[in-house]
Automatic annotation (TrEMBL):
It comes from Zestomonas carbonaria. InterPro entries: Diguanylate_Cyclase, GGDEF_dom, Nucleotide_cyclase, Rev_trsase/Diguanyl_cyclase. Its main location: membrane. It is found in: Cell inner membrane. NCBIfam families: GGDEF. Its cofactor is Mg(2+). GO terms for cellular component: plasma membrane. This is diguanylate cyclase. GO terms for molecular function: diguanylate cyclase activity. Its EC number is 2.7.7.65. Pfam families: GGDEF.
């Protein structure tokens, strides 16, 4: 009984959360809505659509009904009668369901706006959702708003819903998982593009006229080049919403008439503002895409495809950079280099086949990598020979780590057939440098190689230190 109650509680809790969120957002929309007219902007639908696209498991029939109930509760609570409340919120649901179904047909990268085409799909989904909402509004309510024509009513609904969704959704869809920002997040942030954006908005306010709406575009393009996609999406959202408020609130003369006959012009301004921000968003998406591709290419170029360890050239370059940094910082902490070679690896290939040899190399590398700390390097020199670089490790520590790795490998099991597995051992040569004895990398490698050779000569499965400096 208690278990069933608990199960029911766990099922109802997310729905209760959705209900409270809908209630809060709708209340906010209603409070900013002048009596007997449409809201300046109605962010409820865009925010709920963003939430459902990020968390599709909430979009169950019960979830949709909960949202509808939340919206109805606010409308009825604020004095609306049943029929208009049912109708009005059916329009909102029309937008949500249309937008959700069109967007959910897209693969995940499109949902996260990872390609420029994804932005076009978002535009189509917003337009279709807004069109459904506007059509339902006209169908149900006739032409009771504005100047009483069906066309103005439809366009007013459409422009408000379309522009709000297009401005808000990119920020919601690209938001990274929440984490507390660290000091480093802001340490190197370039504030100039943001200041330029602010200046362009102020210039728009000071100069006015219809062209002023486009003043922020160059600053937004600069922001697109300087910031992450999510940051840019937040900036385009804030810029767009600020401009809509300024135009609709008649705070500055933008050449947009505000009589009821001017609803069409206000609608045009809303649509224009939401489309102006598409350009900077496409630039930011393209840059993010290029960065990802470059990072992937760089990873491919620097890492061995079989084991994921650093390639010889990347290992040499990163170790040299590490040594150079130590030199510049006059860091007297030592740096240790372990050269690790699998014993009798040829026999594994010969006995179990090359594919099994590859499997052993892959698993061996995975296990070794897991033992290393951040800042330590792991590379493959070729064949079954690997290198570990340990910055700051003393002689005792380096020997201790090498011994730990040797004994770990000895205990590894590589399944060959059912109930049958093979074992391997490694020989390790250790070389160490410090400030007084700052030797080039190539010399470190050859010292470790000599030590490794001695380990092999003395029977393998052992750690030997280079004699010169240990
Ligand atoms: N499966 C597989 N084998 C490789 C790869 N790279 C090198 N080898 C094989 O690794 C073996 C290395 O053999 P040797 O250099 O004779 O060394 P060993 O048999 O480990 O003997 P010792 O090092 O003296 O203990 C050769 O047979 C290579 O063909 C690889 O990427 N995959």
């Amino acid at each position: 009984m208690a278990a069933r109650m608990q199960h029911r509680f766990h099922r109802l809790l997310p729905l209760a959360g959705l209900f409270v969120l809908t209630l809060g957002l709708t209340l906010l929309g209603v409070l900013t809505r002048p009596i007997e007219s449409l809201s300046l902007f109605w962010p409820v639908n865009a925010i709920l659509l963003g939430l459902l696209l990020r968390q599709p498991h909430r979009a169950t029939p019960a979830g949709w009904l909960t949202i509808y109930a939340g919206m109805l509760a606010v409308d009825l609570g604020s004095g609306n009668t049943w029929l208009p409340a049912l109708w009005l919120n059916a329009c909102n649901m029309g937008l949500l369901l249309t937008g959700w179904h069109l967007m959910m047909r897209r693969p995940v990268p499109q949902l996260r706006l990872e390609t420029p085409q994804a932005l076009l799909h978002l535009l189509i989904a917003c337009a279709a959702g807004a069109a459904v909402a506007a059509s339902l509004a006209c169908l149900m309510n006739g032409a009771r708003w504005f100047d009483g024509t069906l066309q103005t009513t439809w366009l007013a609904w459409f422009s408000e819903q379309f522009s709000t969704c297009l401005l808000i959704l990119p920020a919601l869809l690209t938001a990274p998982p929440f984490r507390r920002p660290g000091r480093h997040d802001f340490a190197h942030a370039d504030v100039r593009p943001m200041l330029a954006l602010l200046a362009s908005l102020l210039a728009g306010l000071a100069i006015g006229g219809p062209g002023a709406l486009a003043f922020p575009v160059p600053a937004l393009l600069w922001c697109a080049l300087a910031y992450r996609l999510f940051t840019l999406a937040v900036l385009t959202m804030l810029t767009g919403l600020a401009e809509i408020i300024v135009v609709a609130g008649d705070l500055v003369y933008y050449g947009v008439p505000h009589s009821s006959a001017g609803v069409g012009a206000l609608m045009s301004a809303r649509l224009g503002i939401s489309m102006l921000v598409m350009g900077p968003l496409v630039v930011a998406i393209t840059i993010a895409l290029n960065r990802q591709l470059l990072a992937r290419l760089e990873h491919r170029a620097n890492h061995d495809t079989l084991t994921g360890a650093l390639e010889r050239s990347a290992l040499t370059q990163q170790t040299s950079a590490l040594m150079e940094r130590r030199r510049q910082q006059r860091n007297s902490a030592p740096l240790a280099l372990l050269m690790i070679d699998i014993d009798h690896f040829k026999a594994i290939n010969d006995t179990h086949g090359h594919a099994m040899g590859d499997q052993v190399l892959r698993e061996f590398a995975n296990q070794l990598r897991q033992q290393l700390r951040q800042g330590e390097l792991f590379g493959r020199l070729g064949g079954e020979e690997f290198v570990v670089v340990l910055p700051g490790a003393t002689r005792t520590e380096a020997l201790h780590i090498a011994e730990r790795l040797r004994s770990l490998v000895e205990r590894l099991e590589f399944p060959v057939t059912e109930g049958n597995s093979l074992h391997i051992t490694v020989s390790i040569g250790v070389a160490l440098t410090d400030q007084e004895d700052d030797i080039p990398l190539e010399q470190m490698l050859s010292r470790a190689d000599v030590a490794l050779y001695r380990a092999k000569a003395q029977g393998r499965n052992r750690v030997m230190a280079a004699e010169e400096n240990l």
